[in-house]
Amino acid sequence: MKEGVRSIGIDDGPFARDSKGDVLVVGAVFKGGTWFDGLLSTKVRKDGWNATDRLVSMLCASKFIRQLHYVILDGIALGGFNVVDLDRLNKETGLKIMVSMRKMPDMRAVKKAVMNLSRWKSRWKMILSAGRIYPVGGIFCQLRGMDENEALELLKLTTTRSNLPEPLRAAHLIAGGLVRGQSGKRA
Amino acid sequence: MKEGVRSIGIDDGPFARDSKGDVLVVGAVFKGGTWFDGLLSTKVRKDGWNATDRLVSMLCASKFIRQLHYVILDGIALGGFNVVDLDRLNKETGLKIMVSMRKMPDMRAVKKAVMNLSRWKSRWKMILSAGRIYPVGGIFCQLRGMDENEALELLKLTTTRSNLPEPLRAAHLIAGGLVRGQSGKRA
Fold first, then answer.
1. Interatomic CA distance for residues B152 and A105, integer angstroms
2. d(Cα B153, Cα B95) in Å, to the nearest integer?
3. What is the rounded CA–CA span in Å between residue B106 and residue B112?
4. What gap in Å lies between CA B171 and CA B157, rounded to an integer?
5. For residue B18, is pLDDT > 90?
6. d(CA B99, CA B143)
7. Largest Cα span, chain B
8. A35 sits in which H/E element
9. From the list A61, A181, A186, which residue is nearest B186 (CB)?
């Protein structure tokens, strides 16, 4: 893997559990493991159905799309349970996808939460279709367009400052700092 | 200067020339020249008078205030001509201040622009009170709480990816990516 390979880490901002409406989503583009190269942003409906569409639009409309190779997501859903369709994201952007999870998800708890939401069977089916969860380099991953070896290489290249890939750590800090700044909460 | 010294680069997002209201301002906290450590944000009134108050609140309410040493501003004003009072910012935050400018400002053009705005004499006085402009390490700076030698050290430590201090480059990319993302424009 080239040292300067570009990846984008995508995370959502914090939101109140009883909130409605849109949730901020940011994507931090990195060249290699320490070079911050740009920021993309969009919004997704909390517990809605538009996460895949919004990510595809955000990525394909960006000047970074031609240089990017990898998308790193913090879990399979944004804005609560607005589930990302990994196959569509992979096919419609041409990018390789890694869903990063710090621990093995408790699928029973996930199913219980999903059952409280609209069209829960479709949502649960999307979550299951994300497929096999691999332990890779100390975290857990779901993958599209790459195998475990490539995932391990990507993690080695990008995990430079913490136990998370740098693009994901940056996206998390940026989304959090923005939402808190606008709500006046201490960052 | 310690390698891990923390600085915050502050920049505003893009806005239409004929727009009114608030402009997004973000601050990117860095440890040294490559370690992104966190994000703060606020809003200032376009061509208004609240930039100093907003920056003081943003910085003093943040968990980073105790670790921060330096503030790097991209010019003396945010959101058009919402001028920052460098003395107040320095005294009320306890931080050392560097205003970074890529070229020597054309003061005649600045004065002409300011004369079209409310209370232009007070505004112009604030701009003049920012004081002497030093050429330091290829850019131009106004300083509070530090001398030219310390400014040069700060620039050497933080200018790692371009001809701009990294905290300022990151703040610029983040503010731009957010405003464009929310307006649907290509980033």
1. 49
2. 16
3. 10
4. 17
5. no
6. 6
7. 45
8. strand A35-45
9. A61
3-state secondary structure of A69: strand
DSSP-derived 3-state class of residue A163: coil
CB contact under 8 Å between A42 and B181, yes or no, is yes
Cross-chain Cβ contact B182/A43 below 8 Å:
yes
* B73 min Cα distance to partner chain A (Å): 18
Beta carbons of A169 and A151 less than 8 angstroms apart: no
Instruction: Decide if A77 contacts A89 (C-beta within 8 A).
Output: no
Q: Is B108 on the interface with A (CB under 8 A)?
A: no
CA angle at residue A120 from A117 to A126, to 5 degrees? 120
Is the pLDDT confidence value at A185 over 70? Answer: no
- Summarised one tens digit per residue, pLDDT across range A90-125 is 999 999 999 999 999 999 999 999 999 999 999 999
- Which DSSP category does A26 fall into? E
Closest-CA residue of A relative to B173 is: A38
In B, which residues are within 8 Å of A43 by CB distance? 182
CB atoms closer than 10 angstroms to residue A10 = 27
Residue B49, C-beta contacts closer than 8 angstroms, at least 6 positions apart: B82
- HEC secondary structure over chain B: CCCCCEEEEEEECCCCCCCCCEEEEEEEEEECCCEEEEEEEEEEECCCCCHHHHHHHHHHCCCCCCCEEEEEEECCEECCCEECCHHHHHHHHCCEEEEEECCCCCHHHHHHHHCCCCCHHHHHHHHHHCCCCEEECCEEEEEECCCHHHHHHHHHHHCCCCCCCHHHHHHHHHHHHHHHHHHCCCC
For residue A42, the chain B residue with the least C-alpha distance is B181
Q: Which two tokens stand for residue B73?
A: 């501003």
Where do the H-state alpha helices sit in chain A? 51-60, 86-93, 107-114, 120-129, 148-158, 166-183
Selected residue of B35, B67, B178 to mutate for chain A interface (largest A Cβ count, 10 A): B178
* pLDDT averaged over every residue in chain B: 95
Which of B26, B31, B41, B166 to substitute to test the interface with A, most A CBs within 10 Å?
A: B41
Instruction: Tell whether ipTM is more than 0.85.
Output: yes
